[in-house]
């Protein structure tokens, strides 16, 4: 990834300073001070030794008279694959697990309570190839597959809740495949799972070659540390998807993703969507994206008029957190593995709801009736023309 821009933050910090940098931070991030959190020297050393970035930021709430603070330490991991995609499936998977375990260990020693990975973190994002083999071999049971078993031990060791996005093999229903986020408790038990609601079909890139829209609705998982939802990747483009996690009581919604910086990619939208969702729904959001180029053995096309190629494009990382007030932290880099930690006070969610009254004023009744009409076969858009009386 030589020659790639490191991050938006690196551009800003190189070219701005003093009052100009403070003003940029105030206008863009929502506060002049990023509220950086001190990290352990051992964590910084481990990150250096294992070549990953580490950063931590606080999202404090105002002190209340009737409720104590609800401080939760949340983290996300972004990373590249570990070995070439022409290696055997188990070798690829085990190499990723070994690599990421070093980052999880650092999260554990930093006292992280809830950790989320990027979309389908334990495999290459092979769906661009449209080949079934060997990629379907990465699919495994959500409840007792090797990845879940691997993570259970770490959940117990660090008293940590982990959200693990995997390719699920549903052994109870004809071995069909789903794109699934598994929520593993700090006790090591599987609390539940959520299957991806919205499946992209963009040109030649069509994930429904492998799995279809999920059937789990918008579950919110009540963990020891707070209520969490998972809006998997393409679901971030759908406003109602974000909304329903809020309606079901989510306090933090993770967006594990795999998205690229190509011409038809999403990088210019990346800094907006999870942030908009946090503002609109008055909850914390975490946007997580993978890193690097992933080259496959066989060429494929992407319906973009370009010659066949072997990689989809740059997965640009840039993972970040945002608070319910719309204040966000700097993102991780575009081209390095990383661990990003947020120390959040969940009391902020209700404080912002009381202040902005979005839920009180949202008019769900009106939209329900409007959507019913939209779904009618004889629907006529509510358009008023100048010539009409």
What does this structure look like?
- By secondary structure, this protein is of the alpha/beta class.
- The chain folds into two domains: 33 residues, no CATH class; 341 residues, Nitrilase/N-carbamoyl-D-aminoacid amidohydrolase (4-Layer Sandwich), CATH 3.60.110.
- 28% of the residues lie in helices and 23% in strands.
- It contains nine helices and 18 strands.
- A seven-stranded mixed sheet has the order 1-18-2-3-4-5-6, with helices on both faces. Strands 9-10-11-12-17 form a five-stranded mixed sheet, with helices on one face. The protein has a two-stranded antiparallel ribbon with strand order 7-8.
- Helix 4 links the parallel strand 2 and strand 3.
- Helix 3 packs antiparallel against helix 4 and helix 4 packs parallel to helix 5.
- The longest helix is centred in the first third of the chain and has 21 residues.
- It is globular and about 65 Å long.
């Amino acid at each position: 990834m030589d020659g790639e821009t490191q991050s938006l933050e690196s551009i800003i910090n190189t070219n701005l300073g003093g009052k100009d940098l403070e003003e940029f931070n105030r206008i863009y991030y929502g506060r002049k001070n990023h509220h950086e959190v001190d990290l352990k020297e051992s964590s910084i050393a481990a990150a250096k030794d294992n070549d990953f970035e580490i950063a931590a930021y606080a999202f404090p709430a105002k002190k209340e008279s009737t409720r104590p603070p609800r401080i939760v330490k949340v983290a996300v991991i972004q990373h590249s694959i570990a070995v070439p995609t022409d290696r055997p499936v188990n070798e690829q998977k085990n190499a990723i697990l070994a690599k990421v375990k070093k980052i999880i260990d650092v999260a554990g020693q930093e006292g992280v309570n809830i950790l989320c990975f990027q979309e389908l973190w334990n495999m290459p994002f092979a769906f661009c190839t449209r080949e079934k083999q060997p990629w379907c071999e990465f699919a495994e049971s959500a409840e007792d597959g090797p990845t879940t078993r691997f993570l259970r031990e770490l959940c117990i060791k660090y008293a940590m809740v982990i959200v693990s996005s995997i390719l699920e093999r549903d052994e109870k229903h004809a071995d069909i495949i789903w794109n699934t986020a598994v929520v593993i408790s700090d006790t090591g038990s599987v609390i539940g799972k959520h299957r991806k609601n919205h499946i992209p079909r963009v040109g030649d890139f069509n994930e429904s070659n492998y799995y279809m829209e999920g059937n789990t609705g918008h579950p919110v998982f009540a963990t020891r540390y707070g209520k969490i939802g998972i809006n998997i990747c393409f679901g971030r483009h759908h406003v109602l998807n974000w909304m329903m996690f809020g309606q079901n009581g989510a306090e933090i919604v993770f967006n594990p993703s795999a998205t690229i910086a190509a011409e038809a990619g999403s990088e210019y939208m990346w800094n907006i969507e999870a942030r908009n969702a946090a503002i609109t729904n008055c909850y914390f959001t975490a946007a997580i994206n993978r890193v690097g180029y992933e080259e496959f053995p066989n060429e494929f096309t992407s319906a973009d008029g370009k010659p066949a190629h072997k990689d989809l494009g740059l997965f640009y990382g840039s993972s970040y957190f945002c608070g319910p007030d719309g204040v966000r932290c700097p993102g991780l880099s575009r081209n390095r593995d990383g661990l990003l930690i947020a120390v959040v006070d969940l009391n902020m969610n209700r404080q912002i709801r009381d202040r902005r009254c979005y839920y009180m004023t949202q008019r769900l009744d009106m939209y329900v009736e409007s959507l019913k009409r939209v779904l009618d076969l004889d629907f006529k858009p509510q358009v008023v023309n100048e010539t009409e009386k």
